[in-house]
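If you are new to this repository, start here. Below is one unmodified record pulled from the training split, so you can see the exact layout before writing a loader.
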Amino acid sequence: MTSPVGIWAVVPVKDTSTAKQRLAPVLPAHLREALALAMLEDVLAALAKVQGIDGRLLVTTDPAALVLAARYDCASMAEGAGDGHSGAVAAAAQRLAREGCGGMLTLPGDIPLVTAAEIGQVIAAHRPAPSFTIAPSHDERGSNAILMSPPNAVTLSFGENSFFPHLAAAEAKGIAPTVLRLPGFALDIDNPADLAHFARLRSRTRAGRLLADSATLLAIREADLGERDAP
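And here is the target side for that same chain:
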């Protein structure tokens, strides 16, 4: 990994073989893994088209995610990968700061509707350092993109209710946050309601095509019937 003075994109990736447990009522394990990888590839494909990013970094030890990292010319690091989303981002932020990178854009791997154009909007709206730009989830609870300059400008703590705490954390550092509400960033697939909404959109993303596949639909129906029949 080189250390240019510029923005690096960071995507933390958990073990995809056990991903998306909250979707277990409607998706069997093999489809949860396939969906996690399809969504991650949608995100990496969008990042690969963005002008203004000097590099891309996956924080993971997952073998399947590392294959995608190589496919999309992403660097990878294992440090922090086992420490949850916040720990993974913190480890990446410290590394990028040490190596002289000007900023860190972190986004999750489960926002399949994100586009290169939207990522470009975040970069274009970003102010000179010290600065903090954020795109929230659709319910304004989650933080689905954060761009910081320098990379460790603010200590981040992700979770189901992180958006407003992140705004407060930036302000506590004397940074006025820039907020962008963008539809592609807004929908992260965390629970069955998110999945159902995404499936209804019939997007031509990799994740959308996976859900539209007849075998996938059959497996979802079987999982649903099994859940209903359970005592």
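Two things worth knowing about this chain: The CA atoms of residues 96 and 151 lie 6 Å apart. The beta strands are 7-12, 55-59, 75-77, 103-106, 131-136, 143-149, 178-179.
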